[in-house]
Amino acid sequence: MHIILNGERSEQQDGLSITGLLAGLGIGLERVAVEVNLDIVPKASYDTHMLSDGDRIEIVHFVGGG
Fold first, then answer.
1. In whole angstroms, what is the distance from residue 14 CA to residue 4 CA?
2. What total of structural domains would you count in the chain?
3. pLDDT reported for residue 66
4. Per-residue confidence at 65, pLDDT binned at 50, 70, 90?
5. What is the CATH number of the domain that holds 24?
6. Residue 66 falls within a domain, yes or no?
């Protein structure tokens, strides 16, 4: 399937969850927020939220600092 990931077209396997996408990208679940088609997905749903062809995903990393 094809998705738009942070503004870039990306080919991913069918039946992929948000957790699977993050794992494949080497991104931990800590300090990230994921938006799918302009809706923020709760972390509790990352395992069960399945991505679909054409989805637009934004991954935002939180960083601390001062």
1. 14
2. 1
3. 66
4. confident
5. 3.10.20.30
6. no
Report yes or no on 18 lying in a domain: yes
Structure confidence by residue, pLDDT tens digits, 32-58 = 999 999 999 999 999 999 999 999 999
Residue 56 is assigned to a structural domain of this protein = yes
Distance of CA 56 to the CA centre of its chain: 9
Q: Which domain holds residue 43?
A: 2-61
Q: Which residue has the tokens 């699977």?
A: 20
Separation of alpha carbons 10 and 29, rounded Å: 20
Partners of residue 61 on adjacent β-strands:
32
Q: How far apart are CA 21 and CA 66, in angstroms?
A: 30
Residues in the chain: 66
